[in-house]
Amino acid sequence: MKRSWNASVWVGLVVVFAGVASYPLIFIRYPVTRDFPWASLLIMALGLALLAVGISRAFRRPDAYRGKIFGSVLGVLAAAVAAFFCYGVFYATRQLPASHGAPQVGQLAPDFTLPDSTNRPVNLLGTLHSQFWPEGTEPVAVIGIPPISTPPPAAVVLIFYRGYW
Amino acid sequence: MRSFEKALPEFDSRKIRVIAISVDSPADSEKLRKSQGYTFPILSDSKDEVIRRWDLVHPHGGPDGIDIARPAEFLIDSSGKIRWVNLTEDLRVRARPQQVLDAFDAMSRAQASLR
User: Where do the structural domains in chain A lie, given as residue ranges?
Assistant: First the structure.
């Protein structure tokens, strides 16, 4: 009797890989699936379940299903990939150094001046004291017409980020 | 940052300025703004002077082991005082715009009740 190729094993492997890839490619873009990677973990769990089904039937009915050896090898491979993913998201990205000296709530923000992406210097306190216009709506000064004025911003949000490289 | 760009109308309506900072050069930041459609300013701290002064350095966190900024978000009121901070322990997990907006709204309510 010709034995089945045991597709469950192969599909399971592909699904596990797809689960891992889905995180950097898709789910990292949305905070709901980024902060706790439940969507990617769910896909990987489905893949591992398929692999488990395939491997168990290869052992229970070796006359009908192939895969006692390659099923086990692929199963170990998939489990290792899943474990590496978990190491990445639950351990590696949490190795940030402590930041005890960062300005705290209630303190004055240390002032600074830095160039923006068009090399124009931007000063923090200066921004807080200058007029507020939504991004891209600053009026262009016209000679002879008194400039419109608006109150300064109510607050500034500073976002420090790792960079684009 | 993508989520902050999307929420920019919410920040505008409250007159909150959104400003980002990284160690990237102004040219790299401009490339990022163009490709991602970010309209808020991105400041360039290429010598990590401000990042160091604010104690937000992630040593060797960048490519080729360069020092970069760890993710962090600050809400600063009009007097220059820090009113809300988010120092994440996981570099994947950043502040969501709603957290900052909620902090701002709470701060405005507290000020209104003092008056």
Answer: 7-94, 101-165
